[in-house]
Design a protein that fits this description.
This protein has 6 helices and no strands. By secondary structure, the protein is mainly alpha-helical. The protein starts with a helix and ends with a helix.
């Protein structure tokens, strides 16, 4: 009986050892698999992080590109705006010059019509104002037209006559003072506030003729 019990115990112990061995092997395999899975998870996390970083970098790059585009658009708009302003200014200057030439032509035609066609001529204040304002400018009103203008202003009356005579007398006085003064032009500027325009001999001759007719 004892031999049978011993044999049974040995078999049981052997089975237990085998079972324990299998458990250990299974645990080792499980531990290895866990490590593998853990490594894979770590790799996946790293990949995800790399993916996130790449996505962030891509967004940053796109954002920088958008900013650069916006700056370029702003500069282009600014250049267009400046160009338009310049063109507008140039156009405005051209219009002013055209209007000046037109006013000059119409004023001289008005004077010529007064001289030659008095029966159809009619008074126009705007033309008279232009002529009285520019009568001393030898480029705008040449000698022939000035001779006609002297005849035109002879019968002037009222405010037109007063202002024309006062202007001529003022020009004559300023010119005579300018010629008699020994001070430098810089001192004259400081005292008068504005630099006086020196008239030519021809212009001064016109001033004297106007005064002679209107006095």
């Amino acid at each position: 009986m004892n031999d049978v019990k011993d044999a049974t115990k040995k078999q049981t112990n052997k089975k237990d050892k085998q079972t324990n061995k299998k458990d250990k092997q299974s645990k080792k395999k499980s531990s290895k698999q866990d490590k593998i899975n853990s490594n894979k998870q770590t790799e996946n996390v790293i990949k995800l992080d790399d993916g996130d970083n790449n996505e962030k970098q891509e967004r940053k790059r796109q954002f920088r590109e958008e900013i650069t585009k916006d700056k370029s658009k702003t500069k282009a708009k600014s250049k267009k705006r400046k160009k338009k302003i310049k063109e507008k200014h140039d156009d405005s200057s051209d219009v002013d010059k055209t209007n000046d030439r037109k006013a000059e032509t119409l004023a001289l035609q008005y004077l010529q019509q007064w001289k030659k066609f008095k029966n159809v001529w009619s008074f126009q204040k705007v033309r008279q104002v232009w002529l009285l304002r520019n009568m001393y400018d030898t480029d705008m009103v040449d000698d022939d037209y000035f001779e006609i203008l002297l005849e035109y202003i002879e019968p002037l009356k009222g405010l037109a006559k007063i202002t024309t005579l006062e202007k001529a007398e003022k020009l004559l006085k300023e010119q005579e003072e300018s010629e008699s003064e020994d001070e430098s032009p810089q001192q004259d500027e400081e005292e008068d506030g504005d630099k006086r325009v020196k008239l030519t001999d021809k212009q001064m001759d016109r001033v004297r003729q106007v005064i002679q007719i209107l006095v």
